[in-house]
Amino acid sequence: MTSNGSGTLSVRATADRELVAAAPSIANRVLVDDLLEAGWVADGPTTNADESVTLTLSHTFANAEDLTTLLNSIGPPLRSPVVTRSLTTDAVGRVTRADNTISGQLGLENGFADFSDAELVTALGGDPFADELSGLSPEDVLSFDLTIALPDSTSDSGERIETWSVPLDGSFTEINLTTSQTTSNPTTTTEVISRVLGVALIVWIILAGSFITFVIIARRRRATQRLAD
Fold first, then answer.
1. How many domains are contained in the chain?
2. Per DSSP, what are the bridge partners of residue 179?
3. Non-local CB neighbours of 160 within 8 Å, separated by 6+ positions
4. What residue numbers bound the domain in which 171 lies?
């Protein structure tokens, strides 16, 4: 998330060479048409030096509500994510502070079944990769990390970055991250004019005072001169 509340969500999936060997189509044919239609941008799939394959999907968001919707579209092991951004304004309505919060849970409740649904099982005639995954648990073959970067005025870099490793053994971990921003509002045109006029008034008073003093002194000198004559 950037300082104005917008930003980019990226999901990067990497299949190791064992998975690529079991499902070669991962390297050259990934069905993401529905994601592209929903506004996601795909980078890959790309074959890496170790023969693994990486696909990155990215989607921009305009505000905390957009980000909440996008995060919820990812599904397990990310559960019930909520992002909020509360703004504090001054007497004239300018934002002086922003508090950003993200919360949710990470974990798999039903193992591999959390990645599927009844329609997919029916379409494939069984659970995906059921033979290859027989006797294995998610923690044997998967890892899932979540990294969040939120703007934070208290950090030297201007943002706070936290990473969670998701438990895949049926347990859950909580996401809770809050950051605060204080804003430095630019001076408005009205304020600039007011300041200029204020300085001009002070200068005018000084000049007027000096002129009046000069006139009084000059008259006294002339009066003194006349008396002397």
1. 3
2. 100
3. 149, 150, 152, 154, 177, 179
4. 64-186
How buried is 104 (Cβ within 10 angstroms: 0-12 exposed, 13-18 middle, 19+ buried)? Answer: buried
**Tokens 């936290």 appear where?**
162
- CA 44 – CA 46 distance, rounded (Å): 5
- The last residue of one of the domains, among 43, 62, 81, is 62
Same domain, 134 and 213: no
How far apart, in whole angstroms, are the C-alpha atoms of residue 178 and residue 198? 42
Per-residue model confidence as pLDDT tens digits over 66-118: 999 999 999 999 999 999 999 998 888 888 899 999 999 999 988 888 888 78
In whole angstroms, give the CA distance from residue 194 to residue 60. Answer: 40
Q: Identify whether residues 180 and 75 lie together within a single domain.
A: yes
Residues 72 and 158 in one domain: yes
Q: Which of 42, 62, 82 is a domain's end point?
A: 62
pTM of the model: 0.73
**Residue 180 and residue 152 share a domain:** yes
* Whole-number pLDDT of residue 86: 93
Same domain flag for 81 and 179: yes
The label of the residue with tokens 């060479």 reads 17
What percent of the chain clears pLDDT 70, i.e. is strictly above it? 83
For the stretch 159-217, pLDDT in tens is: 999 999 999 999 999 999 999 998 765 444 555 555 566 666 676 677 677 667 666 66
Q: Let me know: does 107 contact 171? Beta carbons within 8 Å.
A: yes
154 three-state secondary structure = coil
